[in-house]
Design goal:
Elements lengths: L1 E4 L2 E8 L5 E5 L10 H7 L4 E5 L16 H14 L5 E6 L1 H12 L4 E7 L10 H13 L3 H11 L2 H5 L4 H12 L3 H12 L14 E6 L7 H10 L3 E6 L6 H4 L1 H15 L1
Parallel strand pairs: 3-4, 3-5, 5-6, 6-7, 7-8
Antiparallel strand pairs: 1-2, 2-4
Length: 264
């Protein structure tokens, strides 16, 4: 389905018919399909909303740099158009950055917030890396970014297991079909994140999840978030890298389910 919000068309899916709302926000270079293991699991007890972020999937991909404020306001407008006044929120990587920004800009909407494999701030050393990815997406498209992303997103044993070949191929296709302008726009927003000192202003209960082998946003970044937030708990997921919800879906779902059972 498509809704207009903040000047763009946003693609979203809703699943489930009962319970409180639960919203999922994906990583950079992904779309709603990365949440399939969670949507199927949680739609039993929640009304689930999953959306394609600006520049991704079937959502509009305007050219130019975006900001996390803009991405948070996109979500706010979508929730308003669907008459969703409160929701639990789950965001991974970029989705977690959007969630932090949203919670600070629009307090009271999130009943709880789960931040998975994300950060609240990048150091100066990361700026050249993000600038390089923006340049690649804008000038060469997404294909040169596929292999490196897969290498960061999943552990070596997971990538080497033939049983995971189909999932990895689907994820690779998800990355390469992301609009280059959208990837670049969102990468610019990610590079500018600087929220660590404001995390204590987030009032909602918070679950911080991280793959124990995440090299893209290492556990140390999640530890900072959990230490600075007022109502946070940290859970590390063994044998998982950056996209922990796909590499270890059962462990991810168990941790999220236990958290939501206390706060839904």
């Amino acid at each position: 389905m498509i809704a207009q919000s903040n000047g763009i068309d946003i693609h979203y899916e809703t699943t489930g018919t009962q319970g409180p709302w639960l919203t999922f926000s994906h990583s950079l270079g992904a779309d709603v399909s990365m949440w399939r293991p969670q949507i199927e699991y949680f739609a039993r007890n929640f009304r689930v909303l999953a959306l394609d972020t600006r520049g991704h999937g079937k959502t509009s991909a305007p050219a130019g740099a975006y900001s996390l404020d803009t991405l948070a306001d996109d979500l706010h407008g979508l929730l308003a158009s669907l008459e969703i006044r409160t929701t639990h929120f789950v965001g991974l990587s970029m989705g977690g950055m959007i969630g932090q920004t949203f919670a600070l800009r629009h307090p009271g909407v999130f009943s709880s917030i789960t931040l998975a494999d994300t950060t609240s701030q990048y150091g100066a050393e990361a700026q050249a890396l993000w600038a390089s990815r923006v340049k690649t997406a804008n000038t060469e498209g997404m294909e040169p970014l596929v292999e490196g992303s897969i290498g960061r997103w999943f552990t070596a044993p997971f990538r080497a297991d033939p049983a995971n070949a189909g999932l990895l191929a689907a994820v690779a296709d998800m990355i390469r079909t992301t609009p280059g302008a959208g990837y670049a726009g969102c990468a610019a927003a990610i590079a500018a994140i600087n929220l660590t000192e404001r995390l204590g202003d987030i009032d909602a209960p918070m679950l911080v999840l991280c793959g124990a082998d995440d090299m893209a946003t290492p556990p140390a970044m999640s530890e900072v978030i959990a230490a600075r937030a007022r109502k946070a708990q940290l859970v590390l997921i063994p044998e998982a890298a950056h996209i922990s919800n796909l590499e270890q879906p059962a462990a991810f779902n168990r941790a999220l389910d236990a958290f939501l059972a206390r706060h839904a």
